[in-house]
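#random but structural
TW: two for the price of one
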Amino acid sequence: MSLVDELLGEGAVADLCVWKNKIKSGITFVIATHTWYQLVIMETRLVPFLCSTLLVLMLLLFIWVKFGEPLFIWRAPTPEEIKQKDSPVRTLFSEIEGLLLMLYEIAILFVAIIYTLGSYISLLTVIYICLVCLMTIPVLYLLFQEVVDNFIEDVLEVKDKILEIFKPSRRSYGRVLY
């Protein structure tokens, strides 16, 4: 299992990032690029842009429901399903709670980073750069996996050598009483 598979896991987001389905990944990349271009370069106002986007999405949803399959087929869990200890619904809620706690802990760092970068760069540009990195770095890693892994091993060896230098010695100097 490669490092990219360990970090991203399996699923739709991971498949988009490593371009397993080139059409879906390309569409995602083009939509993100177009949105960034409209909002940052063309200086489109955010609220009218969001309204226009929502109108288009509502139109697509109407066409899909009218002429195709319904978008969501899902029922709400019953209280009995939630109360069971081995219930998949309870497991799902536990997983969501764990993810939310993890995101809460990470959020403080990201708020500080975004605050600092926000004074220099537009937030939309930062988000777009993150998306571009998210969609290119995994592919580059998969192409040059051996080179990157060898480099990381070399860096880890150097790090261990440096840490050995700074490790405190185990000599005791005895107690001095005054």
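TW: number two ↓
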Amino acid sequence: MSPINTNDLHRIFEKLDKNGDGLVSLEELNWLLEKIGVQIISQEELESIVGKSSLDLNEFLSFHDSISKQNSSCSNEVVEEEEENEESDLVKAFKVFDLNGDGFISCDELQNVLSRLGLWDENSGRDCRSMIHVYDTNLDGQLDFEEFKNMMFLTIS
């Protein structure tokens, strides 16, 4: 599994920085988490974890690196528990995209959710079909859960 690249992290940071002030506030981070249906701890707890009320790009990158290093130095027992939690989180994330509940993510569903999150730009020229095709191992034109899981691990791990 390849690590998320710096360009992707920059793009994520820019999308999270809704007000364009060069900082990602906890409110902006919570906005994204709420949009994708993730329950988060309180703002105060998140601030105590992060250590401040907002992060600039370098702090955001350092925070990502520290989380990545922390994850790679866990014991086997903790890793197994994290994998179970990851699987549970992935199921929740999959359900966010699987709007009609049929067990597959179609091009229309992907575009709909990305649009709701503010991550879809009609002018970008990116085609949902080509995005899905990259991870669609059985070539049925949509993503099942295993294909979605592989996409997420290859994208964020």
